[in-house]
Design goal:
Length: about 120
């Protein structure tokens, strides 16, 4: 779990670079067949399944800049610590985007994760 800006930057740099638009659309269509919908604490500004790495950066920056009061209202019941809410949302964004990027690279182990979550009993 990343907790500092440095850890966020390190994890962000480890995420594979963007795939081409055709692959982004193909993976989006494949994931929709599974009804794949990542669970986030807060609304994400752009459609997640077509998000690029640059848009992920923008979303992380947006979360870092969110007002404490807004965070407490939107994630009530999760935590009464706005920083913990920020960290949790950023960790979810990084986790799911890393999975998405690996799916776009057509890595078998990434698809295994999807199959395990959505097909296996």
């Amino acid at each position: 779990m990343v907790k500092t800006r440095e850890e966020v930057e390190r994890k962000f740099r480890q995420i594979p670079e963007d795939a081409g638009q055709e692959m982004i659309e193909r993976v989006k269509a494949d994931l929709k067949r599974y009804a794949f919908s990542p669970a986030f604490l807060l609304p994400v500004k752009k459609p997640f399944l077509t998000m690029t790495k640059a848009e992920l950066r923008e979303e992380i920056d947006r979360v870092l800049d969110l007002d404490d009061e807004y965070l407490l209202k939107r994630a009530s019941g999760f935590s009464d610590d706005p920083q913990q809410i920020r960290c949790a949302q950023i960790n979810l964004l990084l986790y799911y985007y890393d999975l998405l990027a690996r799916l776009r690279k057509d890595l078998p182990e990434a698809w295994d994760e999807i199959h395990e979550l959505y097909e296996d009993d």
